[in-house]
Amino acid sequence: MRIVSLLPSATEIVYALGLGEQLVGVSHECDFPPEAKTKSVLTKAEINSAYPSRQIDAAVKEKVHKGIGIYHLDQELLKKVNPDLILTQELCEVCAVSFSEVKKAVRILDSDTKIVSLEPKRLGDILDNIKTVGEIAGRQAEAAKLVAELQQRIDNVKAITKDVDFRPTTLCLDWMDPPYAAGHWVPEMVEIAGGVDSFGATGQTSVEITWERVIEADPERIIVMPCGFDIPRTIKEIGLLKSVKGWNQISAVRNSRAYIADGNSYFSRPGPRVVTGLEILAEIIQSDYFIDVAPANSYQWI
Asked: Is 107 exposed, middle or buried (0-12, 13-18, 19+ CB in 10 A)?
């Protein structure tokens, strides 16, 4: 089977199931595991990711308003790699090439290509997606084993936080300028990790919020995890937060409980490493119960 993955999370699933040799094409964002970067790159972004956050947000909103795609799909290269299976998504028009563009591009292929759209909104959906890819690609046993291992890690966190006495209010920032509260699976992760997310909603998209609301809510934990940003990229704009009027008076900041996390690796990609993201949140939110469970350099204090 010849597989094309247009999602970084799907690429991670493909490799986790031992299908790396069958992967013939990826998106420009597929960089994990490192072997993914050796595959043919079928997409490119129409917006420069080096732009400041405010400029990226404005450019995205303008293109979405005009019905213009944010990503370009190389149809000729797609025809050349000639996949049997394309893994893509419809969940977020900002996250990957549009589903309609993929369907349109497939018309130029000679083969009967199968398109599978992965649409996770919760942790359970992410595990189901792993099973789906496994079933389609003939890796059911590998998928079942991986899902069982991930579920056990989730259950381990749940068991520890089930009866904690203190659940700190927590803000997970999916974007800094303007500020967005993380949605989809992240609020659920916060709850499992022993916190209370009063900004985002499980299963719903990330939502733009105001700094006035943040300051009024006075969260006890803040985790900055911008979609698509690693820690060095986030640090470049951390001055945006420090310049917010009232920032230093927020409980999380005042008590040294504000953090930067690697959003790109552990939170914005709904693949196996999201469970590592859960463990990172547990160490941040319930630090008395979780010690050294997060990978090195996966988060740091602001």
From this structure: exposed
